[in-house]
Amino acid sequence: MTSGAAFFDLDKTIIATSSAHTLGRELLNNGLLSRGSALHLAFAQLSYLFSTHSAEQMESAKERLSTIISGLEVSEVHRVAEETMHSVLTPRIYAEARQLIKEHQDRGEDVIIVSASIPDLVSVIASELGVVDVIGSKLEVKDGCYTGNVPFYCTGPHKAMAITNLALERGYDLSRSYAYSDALADLPMLELVSHPVAVNPDRGLRRVASERDWEILSFRNPVPLITPPSSRDVGITTGIALSLASLAAGVWWYQRSRNIPS
Asked: Which of 20, 46, 115, 260 lies 20 to 30 Å from 152, alpha-carbon distance?
């Protein structure tokens, strides 16, 4: 008899933060990101905190991912991902998500994390949770470095397609399967299974879940869903802003001085 499986989104569902932006910040702290990429990261974090993750925003996120990883060595990214997992992300894994994953595993159901984030980081988080299987974005690698090309970005309908393919390959019965997510953008994934669950849902998903009488869960441990930036994060972002402002002022002064007759 075929069995069901449990498919979990990552950000805001398993962890109380954005995995990609957290990794990006640590890459910046390690001197692996350019100032331009850091600025992309600062704007991305603001967008992440207040967006509902529409298709357009997901495409924009793909472009930011491409910008951040382009030219980085795979081994360096993996090293920082390992450090980020232990120092930053482990304390932000929801205790409720960890318990729920264990319950599915105890029932003999496969658990699969489905995420658009950088595969190196998703795999490290999965390992921490005892999860073997991950469906994630595909990043092109050449000569040991990421090229910036993202052949497969695991969001929205692409998540649903990947889950369908895996179910066919392994014989999962989706009518006996579960899916967990926080975002309306993951509606195609949630609609695939007979047990869709909205976790800390955004406004759009909460509306759909309420209309369809889907289960809604609120995960609150170990930290609130949205946490204020640390003083270190504020310092980094402020430093970037001040540097850009200083550069702009310098250019203005130089151009002005050239236009003043001697």
From this structure: 46
Tens of pLDDT, residue by residue over 52-90, are: 555 566 666 677 777 777 888 999 988 888 887 777 888
- pLDDT tens across 184-200, in order? 989 999 999 999 999 99
**Fold classified for 5-225:** Rossmann fold (3.40.50)
CA distance 52 to 99: 26
Domain boundaries, the chain: 5-225, 228-262
Judge residue 225's burial from the number of C-beta atoms within 10 Å of its C-beta, 0-12 exposed, 13-18 middle, 19 or more buried: middle
Beta-bridge partners for 63: none
User: Which residue among 11, 182, 186, 202 is the active-site one?
Assistant: 11
Distances from the Cα of 213 to the Cαs of 197, 207, 216, in angstroms?
10, 10, 9
| Integer angstrom CA distances of residue 16 from 150, 159, 243 | 25, 21, 31
- Find, among 193, 182, 169, the residue nearest to 12 by Cα: 182
Active site residue 9: yes
Q: Which of 9, 110, 186, 202 is catalytic?
A: 9
Using an 8 Å Cβ cutoff, are 203 and 211 in contact? no
pTM, two decimals, is 0.77
Residue found under tokens 């066919």: 168
pLDDT computed for residue 26 by the predictor: 81
E runs forming strands in the chain:
5-8, 110-115, 133-136, 141-142, 145-146, 178-181, 195-199, 215-217
